[in-house]
């Protein structure tokens, strides 16, 4: 004897709204305990546990990272079209702030190639714009962190971020080709740089070209030193990690030793302003370099335009990606990382910094050097300050070809080759948003290319939501032809019309052939949720099916999904049936005892 499952009581269809006041009260209570202090000020958690045997490891790691940070900062200052000193101004404060607020021991915060490239179009030789972008980006990132908006990063897929990174690497490396061969150039963009290079290739300076190419080869070879099976592996390891500093030192020595009668053998980056940067608020007004006209704050913000969206977004994306890569199984608190990054930018702007974020290259060096805590950032920051205080006159001899080789060598390994291969092997369709992002970023701009990639990838999601998993199967029970529609997942407004059209077309064809389809059953135990548009379309579907002498039932729907329709129109509650099996449902529908509970009389 079959036993039917009773329908749920009316109370179950009531919509459960979130308890806002309860959530606010819980948050307020959680802000008043030590766990909240440890959350928002992570240094209070790890510093009491600090062991003295960690100190040598942090010192070595900090020094090793510093030897890379100094030449990279100078190079990235040039990439941003700023005086070299501004790269160094950007390289120390982030390390000090991250000690207090950061959650990942490996991350180093400072200037990066992507941030420098993003800032370049808005600078035009005026550092005030770079400093203001640093301040405003920091404010935006901090507010987003406090509002727990780190979840927005989930809307940017791996193919898009991988494509953006590859495009940025191509663009940055291309921008240094002219300097690598000693050709003076102010060209920006992928095509412009190559057009200028081939158009002025006869202006190649022999000394610069030899130095640049040899330095590039040296850097690539030194990267492999750590993998050689020699006895003193630790020496080779740290020599490999310090390869940028070695390249800069060799370049400076060659430039100094080969000069004749005051003439330098290479094009150099120029003098670096000696001394520490002054502590002062970021500029909220500036002068136009051409006309000398004063530009107020509103004018500066108008000039940077979309950078106030793209730079914070990419800064967060880059930093969170680095944190996840080196979290080693720990859960990354994205919101706290955003707060740390935002405050780092805000405070750095008071020292004339351009926008900064987490650096993958220096973080990898930090991790490989065996850093134990974020305290290594203080050593790196101190080394940068010492460079500004005592070594700026020495760095005036750095050849541009050397800096170009350092940047190009870094770009070789910025491309995520392994991830590209994984995308291709996993799902070849995902290579499309990757390619769209790469092409748009390279041949258009990085900001708009990223937006195009995100929108293009979102179209895949919309297309998928337009066609939910829906299988139609015809069954017969006691001579009654039943169309079983099996739906899975969430069904939203984009799929509403598709669902109605699919079922109506099927029933129309069946009735045209045999005229026997008298019942459509939508099985909904795997439907997580629906919205009002779907509910209205199902109501319309029922009315249209009735004109074809066909009834519509919703069988074993989840309460949240069924509740949307039942709250919209209480008369539609009879459309929902619950039973343990399909045969029980059909027996209930055909039995005379249940005739008063059925939506239609199937005996007709």
Tell me what you see in this structure:
This protein has helices at residues 20-30, 34-40, 43-46, 55-79, 84-89, 93-101, 113-123, 127-146, 158-175, 177-180, 190-199, 206-223, 233-241, 243-257, 297-304, 307-325, 334-349, 360-368, 376-390, 392-395, 400-412, 417-426, 431-443, 446-466, 493-513, 532-547, 559-568, 582-590, and strands spanning 109-110, 286-287, 294-295, 357-358, 470-477, 480-491, 517-530, 551-555, 576-577. The chain is of the alpha/beta class and 604 residues long. It has a 5-stranded mixed sheet. The longest helix is centred in the first third of the chain and has 25 residues, at 55-79. 42% of the residues are buried. It is found in: Membrane.
Total strands: the figure is 9
Give me the side-by-side strand order of the main sheet: 5-6-7-8-9
For the largest beta-sheet, the strand count, sense and barrel status come to: 5 strands, mixed
**Alpha-carbon Rg, integer:** 32 Å
Task: Give me the number of helical elements.
Answer: 28
Low-confidence stretches: 1-5, 592-604
Shape annotation: elongated
Structural class: alpha/beta
Strand content: 5-15%
For the termini, the CA-CA separation is: 25 Å
Output mean pLDDT.
Answer: 84
Helix content: 55-70%
Task: List descriptors.
single chain; 604 residues; alpha/beta; 5-stranded mixed β-sheet; two-stranded antiparallel ribbon; elongated; disordered N terminus; SLC26A/SulP_fam; Sodium-independent sulfate anion transporter isoform X1; SLC26A/SulP_dom; transmembrane helix; transmembrane
